[in-house]
């Protein structure tokens, strides 16, 4: 019987042949997931080395093989194992949702610097931004909107699993939204159509296209959000959006033209422009 370590090494070689960087890491993540499924509970990371050198449990190779096939086809590891860590929780992810990324944690961090009682998350996807904010602010309420019913179903499951009360609504940005909010946040599709071909296969071929691009210049979502947000912000409330690293000037101009104040930029951990914030006049 092939050992877990041999299975991992074979998977790593296959990943590297497919052009996947960090094939060793991905092979071990998938092996840990397979072993966890067979054990019936999560295998701690520190136990993996011992388990790789132990005899293979019955059924391991049959369970591991389709995971390797999927990754070699460039499906993201998070979709294969069905979860992704973000902020302080793990979130269910599927091919119907954008994979939560560390860059987006800059948006959560920026939002938590301001008081809010009611928050709106536009294009919520997995619900990662909204749920992370509400988990940090007991007593706050929140609404997440999305144009995908499948994504909203994932967000509802994530909220229930993490123990956060939130509402979710099918809406084209703010079209179906009622009322006002202290905070509006969004990580909208900001990749220009001309940039799509340059994305990795993991993103371009496996993540929902409408969560990536507006099929135009990458600014259509910001135009829609910024034009409608002032009607749904409380006086003194904040609008905060994630951007691509070259879009700061354009998005800031949209916010100023809409009458918003205190427009500013928050960088991500790599120092790139990542979040644009603006305040509705009090």
Automatic annotation (TrEMBL):
Residues 104-191 form the Methyltransferase small domain. Pfam families: MTS, PrmC_N. Residues 11-82 form the Release factor glutamine methyltransferase N-terminal domain. One of its GO terms (molecular function) is peptide chain release factor N(5)-glutamine methyltransferase activity. It catalyses: L-glutaminyl-[peptide chain release factor] + S-adenosyl-L-methionine = N(5)-methyl-L-glutaminyl-[peptide chain release factor] + S-adenosyl-L-homocysteine + H(+). S-adenosyl-L-methionine binds at residues 123-127, 146, 173, 187. Keywords: Methyltransferase, S-adenosyl-L-methionine, Transferase. The keyword Methyltransferase applies. PROSITE patterns: N6_MTASE (PS00092). Its EC number is 2.1.1.297. Substrate binds at residues 187-190. The keyword Transferase applies. It is an enzyme of class 2 (transferase). Belongs to the protein N5-glutamine methyltransferase family. PrmC subfamily. Methylates the class 1 translation termination release factors RF1/PrfA and RF2/PrfB on the glutamine residue of the universally conserved GGQ motif. This is Release factor glutamine methyltransferase. It comes from Paracoccus sulfuroxidans. The lineage of its organism: Bacteria, Pseudomonadati, Pseudomonadota, Alphaproteobacteria, Rhodobacterales.
